[in-house]
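Handoff note, outgoing to incoming analyst
You'll be picking up this chain. Sequence as last confirmed:
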Amino acid sequence: MAESHKPRSHARVPVSCFLYYLGEGLVGTGKVCDLSVKGWRIEGDKPVSVGMKLTLRVFLPDQPKAIDIEGVTVQWVQGHVFGLETVTMNAVAEARIQQFILSMLESSGSSRVA
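Most recent structure output, in case you need it:
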């Protein structure tokens, strides 16, 4: 039976940027495929499982400094692709991600909310 997913309430933008993810004895690298303030779709090199708590170090395009985000939860997994939910985030990281998303939406003239 297919898992039910909560509807998204934040604009999600396609992106391709590098990240590290760490948690429960694993260190993985991957690519952010799309993101919103509260959610991420990642393609990674190490397997994760639903419910795992991860810490991310994300390198957004044209940003001089990486963003560290703790307490991200794996929501779904399909092979090497997985979805993450951000429950809490420090104000600086959240502001940087919001600004990045806003600039991506303005440059593309569209958003995906599903």
